[in-house]
Amino acid sequence: MSGSEPSQEPRPVIGLTTYLDRAKFGVWDTRAGLLPARYLDGITTAGGIAVLLPPQPVDAAVAARVLDGVDALVITGGRDLDPAGYGQAPHTETDRPDTARDTWESALLAEALRRRMPVLGICRGAQVLNVALGGTLHQHLPDVIGHSGHRAGDGVFTPKQVQTVAGTRLAGLLGPGSRVQCYHHQAIAEVGAKLVVSARDDDGVIEAIELPGEDFVLAVQWHPEESLDDDLRLFTAIVAAAAGYASARVSR
């Protein structure tokens, strides 16, 4: 091989959290680690390598070992968080808790933040980030805003216009606003420590939060994986942040 050939930086590896739930495929009906393929498509189309991180028994050492193998963490959508984690009794409309996933994602997030690793939260992931930093949630958004327009039901995503907050990382990525796809009946109430709101919708609902500063820690209440044909910017951003993190890690 000629020494004059340019070197190519390896593609960054992004870990995505998953469900652990019942699945049917072929002759099988069993529990499985699951994640809609559109999340993977978002990462790979943006130039990253996607790795699935299914819920499992965890402690700080396990979380650290898992994150040794990735360059960024994406906390994906899914079931409602256990309201006990933010000091509330469950609402009648709140999902039965998935404590294994709650514990798994909380441990991964804590270790990612400790390492200053890039983090992207999507829907449930925004709520995980907010609660981890001491925030709370509205357990049933229709009680707050008077309608169920953020979750139509039956797996149908609702288009919503969001307005970003000037000066935030999200505004730098999306500009002053964007049309997004929503499917959530809960939302951020009290914002966690050090977090800032980076987008709201026309109902005033918080649709994105982030940690200010150099570290890429950003979470959106909507589902960017449902807009891949039109808008890859959030996936491109987390892949680019992961590449920068990987490069800095190698140079240390």
Structure, described:
With 252 residues, the protein is an alpha/beta fold. It is 29% helix and 25% strand. It contains 7 helices and 13 strands. The model has no long low-confidence stretch (mean pLDDT 94). It comes from [Mycobacterium] kokjensenii. GO terms for molecular function: hydrolase activity. It holds the Pfam family Peptidase_C26.
Helix content: 25-40%
Mean pLDDT score: 94
- Kindly estimate the percentage of residues that lie in beta strands according to DSSP: 25-35%
Q: Tell me the Rg in angstroms.
A: 18 Å
The biggest beta sheet reads:
9 strands, mixed
Determine the structural class based on helices, strands and strand pairing: alpha/beta
Quaternary state reads: single chain
* Count of DSSP-assigned helices: 7
Order of helices and strands: EEEHEHEHEHEHEHEEEEEH
Give a count of the beta strands, DSSP E runs of length 2 or more.
13
How far apart are the first and last residues' alpha carbons, in Å?
Answer: 28 Å
> How do the strands line up in the largest sheet?
4-1-5-6-13-12-11-8-9
Q: What does the overall shape look like?
A: globular
Low-confidence segments, given as residue ranges, are: none
